[in-house]
Amino acid sequence: MAKLATVLSSPMPPRSRPIATEPHLRIHVVAEREEAERALASQIAALVVERAARGEHAILGLATGGTPVGVYAELVRLHRAGELDFARVETFNLDEYEGLAADHPASFRRFMHETLFARVNLPAGAIHFPPADLEPRALERACSAYEEAIRAAGGIDLQLLGLGRNGHLAFNEPGSARESRTRRVELHPATREDVAPIFAAHRSAPTHAVTMGLATILEARALRVLAFGASKAAIVRRALREPIGPELPASYLRTHPDVEVWLDRAAAAETGQ
Ligand code: PGA
């Protein structure tokens, strides 16, 4: 476990230039997002191979949204090329909307199924999502069980993350405590606005979700954050430069001992790099 940083260094160093900001924060600005996607997929592949060689599972924390799709496409490509076996992989997703059936077109379970799970040999029992369709008391117990399942798996080796434009991390919206754990949350108006197009064809959009907490996320041994496009430039600057605190959950990334932030030039435009 202690050698994780070594294991995760890309087999082929990316052409991007790491920018020094804070000691444990490595920021890579790439010309094309595909470079970041390939680098992260190869980190994941290296982790899986290294764990499997020791007879162990690799525990991945996965994110949904437009940001990580290219990483998943690259993982599928590696799998189809015979270079990546998911038999010893276990996954924990960050979050899920409340009240959606697993096969709802906008559910994160369906997104993951279509983008990755149905395309690789990940055993069905190895896939975990936060509980999202239970009555309050059962939900609370299931949230604790989700935390326990992560612990029982040995903790998350590598957590993929996108950045919400309002600074949320998973669905930890502004105001979320550093100590927060997996729980039911109300979606911030800005988040509801961002996801509205996805639900436009349906009767109503969810107002709540269940998300891993900030403490849960920050316990992952490695955080790998992606942000692409001009719409992320302001939040990237804020997350990297503004004071660390609950009003800006993404700022807590800077407190983690092993975090890489992968940006294209548009997303990095306001960082002064
Ligand atoms: P996106 O969402 O990848 O769809 O931009 C990121 C997020 O809200 O965390």
Keywords:
273 residues, alpha/beta, Rossmann fold, 3-stranded antiparallel β-sheet, 8 helices, 11 strands, disordered N terminus, binds 2-phosphoglycolic acid
What features would you describe in this structure?
This protein is an alpha/beta fold and 273 residues long. Helices cover 32% and strands 18% of the residues. The chain has one domain: Rossmann fold, CATH 3.40.50. The protein has helices spanning 4-8, 33-53, 69-80, 108-115, 136-152, 189-199, 214-218, 233-241; strands spanning 17-20, 25-30, 58-62, 89-93, 95-97, 127-128, 158-161, 183-186, 208-211, 222-227, 259-264. Strands 1-2-11-10-7-3-4-6 form an eight-stranded mixed sheet, with helices on one face. Strands 5-9-8 form a three-stranded antiparallel sheet. A hairpin with a 4-residue loop joins strand 1 (17-20) and strand 2 (25-30). The relative contact order is 0.17. The model is unreliable at 1-20 (pLDDT under 50). Bound molecules: 2-phosphoglycolic acid. Residues 65-67, 162-164 line the site of 2-phosphoglycolic acid. 2-phosphoglycolic acid binds next to loops.
Task: Give a nutshell description of this structure.
With 273 residues, this protein is of the alpha/beta class. It has 8 helices and 11 strands.
Number of strands: 11
Give me the strand/helix succession.
HEEHEHEEHEHEEHEHEHE
The poorly predicted ranges are 1-20
Round the Cα radius of gyration to an integer and report it: 18 Å
| Strands side by side in the biggest sheet | 1-2-11-10-7-3-4-6
Main sheet properties = 8 strands, mixed
CATH structural fold name? Rossmann fold
Tally of distinct domains: 1
Q: Report how far the terminal alpha carbons are from each other.
A: 33 Å
- Indicate the overall shape: globular
User: How much of the sequence is in beta strands?
Assistant: 15-25%
| Mean pLDDT reading | 91
Helix content: 25-40%
**Cofactors, ions and other ligands in the entry:** 2-phosphoglycolic acid
Q: Which structural class do you get from the secondary structure elements?
A: alpha/beta
Q: Which CATH first-tier class would you pick?
A: Alpha Beta
CATH architecture: 3-Layer(aba) Sandwich
